[in-house]
Amino acid sequence: MDGKIVILGTLDTKGQEFKYIKDLIESTGTATLVINAGVKGEPYFTPEISNAQVAEAGGMKLGELIERNDRGLAMNVMMQGAVTWVSQLYTKGEVGGIISLGGTAGTTIGTAAMQALPVGVPKVMVSTVASGDTRPYVGVKDVTMMYSVVDIAGLNGLSRRILANAAFAVAGMVRGKAPAAGADKPLIGATMFGVTTPCVTKAREHMEAKGYELLVFHATGTGGQAMEGLIEGGFIKGVLDITTTEWADELVGGVMSGGPRRLEAAARAGIPQVVSVGALDMVNFGPMDTVPVRFKGRKLYQHNPTVTLMRTTVEECRRLGEIIASKLNKVQGPTALYLPLKGVSLIDKAGQVFYGPEEDAALFAALRQNLDRSRVEIIEMDTDINDEHFAVAMAEKLAAMMKQK
């Protein structure tokens, strides 16, 4: 077993609970390292890293923070300090896993530190808000959220059982011997939507037959972000970014944006990538009645009761082409862009609801006009994106790039 389990939290207000899980973890023969993120009160027990050290790492002296008496400021400083300490400890090889407990403030501090750690490092957060929207706390990392059921305010028959489950869970994660990601085969990242599934499935099968392992990410915003986070972490060695639809949501205001840095990680890492324009014919919203009023006159399609799709316009497609070209022009490694001239999704084909030759033509023209051909190769095929030949061509291209790399 490498590294200790970091126990991070406010030892002034929840010290008894943290001492309880510390003792349980250590009863398994697993070493711990405690970081105090509390501000005002005295700690229930002595940590390895004090709140004064955390505050200083966050940019302020503890005394000044107490004197300011600003809860929001205190939380931000202690959060940044916790992130800094956990990151430094991990770099030194001292972190085998991490656990925290808390309400909204404690969860924000604890999970910020967890998100600073790579995917694969065990992370357990016992939280009063774990049954709600956890996206702000989990982000794109493998944070295990455990609902506390009752408030974390003292020990009782129920809370002891829940905290014990959490303590033994993180100890088991750390003591277990999970296989290293990508230890056997090079990992390839691929992006998919329902309307590009046939393409990605065929490409995946082709790459797997050549000895690669594919991680397929659902292009729902967090999916693209998760893939790019793993690229930055060094896990992914090549990319089949077939479904770049998240940029349509980012540009137009849909609910599945991957953020303004989407399509940058592979470029910075210099890894081989094959990119296409999958599902750029659509912007995503929730149920039909949630579509913003300003879009009510647009071409809408109810994909299912919870998802409404909106067709991108000629101008939006032109702009998407410019944006994607600007991202790909920054590449540091072998890159190819594949254009399916007969449609970018299952519903963007002749006879289908989003068939839009003018819109697609604007997208393709903007890409051709703005791409730096000395950096990015463009391959155009007279098929739709889900044609088997298109999928195999992209897979073959990436396999050739990987071999050369």
CATH topology of the largest domain: Rossmann fold
Mean pLDDT: 94
Instruction: Tell me the total number of β-strands.
Output: 14
CATH architecture level-2 label of the largest domain: 3-Layer(aba) Sandwich
Principal-axis shape equals elongated
Strand content: 15-25%
Specify the helix fraction band: 40-55%
Order of helices and strands: EHEHHHEHEHEHEHEHEHHEEEEHEHEH
Q: Uncertain spans, ≥5 residues at pLDDT below 50?
A: none
- The CATH class label of the largest domain is Alpha Beta
In the sheet with the most strands, the strands line up as 7-6-8-9-13-14
Number of domains: 2
Tell me about the largest β-sheet. 6 strands, parallel
CATH superfamily of the largest domain: Uncharacterised protein family UPF0261, NC domain
Class based on secondary structure composition and strand pairing:
alpha/beta
Rg over CA atoms, rounded to whole Å, is: 24 Å
Quaternary structure annotation = single chain
Distance between the termini: 34 Å
Distinct helical segment count: 14
Chart the SSEs and their pairings:
Blueprint: E1 4-9, H1 15-27, E2 32-36, H2 51-57, H3 62-68, H4 71-91, E3 95-102, H5 104-115, E4 123-127, H6 135-138, E5 144-147, H7 157-175, E6 187-192, H8 197-209, E7 213-218, H9 222-232, E8 236-241, H10 246-252, H11 265-269, E9 273-275, E10 282-285, E11 300-304, E12 307-311, H12 314-328, E13 335-340, H13 357-370, E14 376-381, H14 388-404
Parallel strand pairs: 1-2, 1-3, 3-4, 4-5, 6-7, 6-8, 8-9, 9-13, 13-14
Antiparallel strand pairs: 10-12, 11-12
Helix pairs in contact: 1-7, 2-4, 4-5, 8-14, 10-12, 12-13
